[in-house]
Prior knowledge:
mainly beta, 3-stranded antiparallel beta sheet, 3-stranded mixed beta sheet
Amino acid sequence: MAMTKPFSIDRILGDRPFAEIGVSLRDEHGRLRVHARVEPLFGLPPRPRRPPAVRLLPGQWVRRQLNYRFTSALGLRGWSYWLDTFNIAYGPVGQDVFLSEPTLVVDERGPVR
Length: 113
């Protein structure tokens, strides 16, 4: 993902536009504000209050994880689960940036059963 100017995303993730990915990015006074959107709400396992958005300085990166669980409409079938992991870097970074430990980790995973 490359951001060449504020609020302008130049690349597409796979075949989906960036706007469809479940994360909010905003440039605020030289920091990148990163917050995961929660969609759909009915799929969230119980968890404590959601953490606030993080703000990255140039050269920093965050790993944000959020999980979901679903059952059939009538509850007759088993559960299905999914995990979203967002690795987001701000500013110029090396090609191997995501091979190192993240500057920040936001773990919003809740119990799945």
